[in-house]
Design goal:
Elements lengths: L1 H4 L6 H23 L5 H26 L19 H20 L9 H18 L2 H21 L1 H36 L1
């Protein structure tokens, strides 16, 4: 479709730029489906790599927030220099859900790593709130709801306790997030 669109475009330079971005997306499904199936351990390692990569990216953005480097930003969302703030917040929400999944599956995370992964979830939640990303918070909230329903059906007794705890923690976090947004809007109105 994009190649056909090049026939009647008025901005050929942007069209070529757009094709350069989207052509690799055609190759990606071929690579994925022609590759051998990943084993469970390989998939877990890949997902752990994703979680720790998001952690490193949040450390970089937090360094920018603290003033390390010469990056200037006018809005808190500008501290995400690696990718767009919305995509980054979605990655953070996915990293929170994966970390929670790892914590609930004892065969993935050893007992001595539980504290580290719990702190990692707190860090990711803090970064999501720092970004003030409504999209990320909504995706996290919906994912938590779905995960709670899944675990209640799979493990009724233990899951109900965990679901209750996470509901309360994240409800408090979402309330804090909404309070920050309302406070910021109030300050903006007073400045006008």
């Amino acid at each position: 479709m994009h190649v056909l669109g090049m026939l009647y475009t008025t901005d050929l330079k942007f069209g070529i730029h757009d094709l350069k971005i989207k052509l690799p997306l055609l190759v990606l499904p071929v690579i994925v489906f022609s590759s051998p199936k990943l084993s469970y351990n390989q998939l877990v390692r890949l997902l752990l790599l994703f979680v720790w990569s998001v952690f490193v990216a949040t450390l970089i953005s937090f360094g920018i927030y603290l003033g390390v480097g010469n990056v200037q930003y006018t809005d808190i969302r500008g501290i995400s220099i690696i990718i767009s703030q919305i995509r980054f917040s979605l990655y953070i929400a996915m990293a929170i859900m994966l970390t929670l999944y790892f914590l609930l599956n004892k065969d993935i995370v050893k007992p001595w790593l539980i504290i580290i992964y719990s702190l990692l979830m707190v860090w990711f939640t803090y970064k999501l709130m720092l970004f003030k990303s409504l999209t990320g918070v909504i995706i996290l909230y919906v994912s938590l709801v779905l995960m709670c329903f899944y675990y209640v059906r799979q493990r009724p007794s233990k899951a109900k306790k965990m679901a209750s705890l996470w509901w309360h923690c994240h409800f408090a976090g979402i309330s804090f997030f909404c309070n920050c947004i309302c406070h910021q809007q109030l300050l903006l109105r007073r400045q006008r």
